Amino acid sequence: MTIMREEDLEIAIKVVIVGNGAVGKSSMIQRYCKGSFTKDYKKTIGVDFLERQIKVEEEEVRLMLWDTAGQEEFDAITKAYYRGAQACVLAFSTTDRDSFVAINKWKKKVEDECGSIPMVLVQNKIDLIDQATVKPDEVESLARELRVRLYRTSVKEDLNVDQVFNYLVDQYLAIINHSEDVYTTKNVGENIFGNPVKLNKGDTITLSGKKKTSKKQLIKSACKVI
Ligand SMILES: Nc1nc2c(ncn2[C@@H]2O[C@H](COP(=O)(O)OP(=O)(O)OP(=O)(O)O)[C@@H](O)[C@H]2O)c(=O)[nH]1
Ligand SMILES: [Mg+2]
């Protein structure tokens, strides 16, 4: 028999970063995970993956960042990698109006696969504000319309990148902590898992505590996706 101790478990969050080509998705992940920035543009072919472990209120959280290709030629293959994502970054570039217009399409594409998950709108390359092709108020109204928080980042200058991921982690933890509350509530009622208010004999109750995954499970699930 294997005894699994609490310290063997960790919270793992799969985050997908989507948006048009060249908006800075790979650069953002590279900045966040490796602390570096490269000026040259090398488009992502298909999908890439990096991870970073952070500590949030004494909890180890492993962020698995899925970097998807923004170029249209890869549209068909990237979608499959969204599956199982628990959070999403919708990125566009300050200097590329098309990438701003495409945000709705990216959001829908992710929601088609993942349903409603924590998302954030990121206006990258804010260091190039003098070459902006989008007005601040139209960006703010898109964020309001989509009901997502807006962050203006410069991956180049390392501005606001950590904040984007911290926010998503907080959002995700709030959701799982809430599901724990529901789980421990005596009166299950109509909860976020869609269980009926009045339980009858034979009803199925969906139980879900804090989602912690063992390292082994993590590797297994990552392998499945690849
Ligand atoms: N000035 C400036 N340039 C940036 C910033 N972030 C990324 N870049 C540059 O923008 C270009 C594209 O960056 P990538 O990270 O490769 O873009 P991507 O979104 O991953 O592109 P695809 O992989 O094709 O989808 C690169 O030349 C980066 O150096 C930024 O904040 N400011
Ligand atoms: Mg890329």
TrEMBL record:
Work out whether the entry's keyword set contains GTP-binding: yes
**Annotated SUPFAM superfamilies:** P-loop containing nucleoside triphosphate hydrolases
Q: Which domain of life is it from?
A: Eukaryota
Q: Which GO terms describe its molecular function?
A: GTP binding; GTPase activity
InterPro entries assigned to the protein according to its UniProt record, in alphabetical order: P-loop_NTPase, Rab, Small_GTP-bd, Small_GTPase
Write out the entry's keywords from A to Z.
GTP-binding, Nucleotide-binding
Q: Does the keyword 4Fe-4S apply?
A: no
**Name by which UniProt lists this protein:** Ras-related protein Rab-23
Q: To which species is this protein native?
A: Cherax quadricarinatus (Australian red claw crayfish)
